[in-house]
Design goal:
This protein has about 100 residues and is mainly alpha-helical. Helices cover about 55% and strands about 5% of the residues. Strands 1-2 form a two-stranded antiparallel ribbon. α2 crosses α6. The chain is rod-shaped. It starts with 9 loop residues before the first helix and ends with a helix.
């Protein structure tokens, strides 16, 4: 009795490899997003360096101010956005951010 060999055409083999690569890439991308620190409520931010580092992490576009979307990284800041934005320019400056953190 002759043994049956399973033949997978190149098209099917390439499709399986492409699907596997896309799956691995997607999993890695999701893991990178999930593992990115958003806010550390257990850690108290008190020092000037800590405040500057937190502001720099949130200032994604590096324009020196936080808009509402960037402030969302800190739920407490997001909830008090209008109170913290003293000059009512719809953004929070580094100084406004520091003053809010220290109070």
């Amino acid at each position: 009795m002759a043994s049956k060999s399973h033949f997978i055409p190149n098209f099917e083999a390439r499709s399986v490899l492409l699907l596997a690569a896309l799956t691995v890439g997607t999993v890695l991308a999701i893991q990178a997003q999930v593992s990115e620190p958003v806010a550390t409520p257990a850690r108290t931010v008190t020092g000037t360096q800590d405040i500057d580092a937190a502001f720099d992490r949130a200032d994604v576009n590096r324009d020196g101010k936080l808009d509402r979307a960037e402030a969302a990284r800190f739920p407490v800041i997001e909830q008090r956005f209008d109170q913290i934005d003293r000059d009512r320019d719809q953004s929070i400056s580094r100084e406004e951010f520091a003053a809010a953190i220290k109070t």
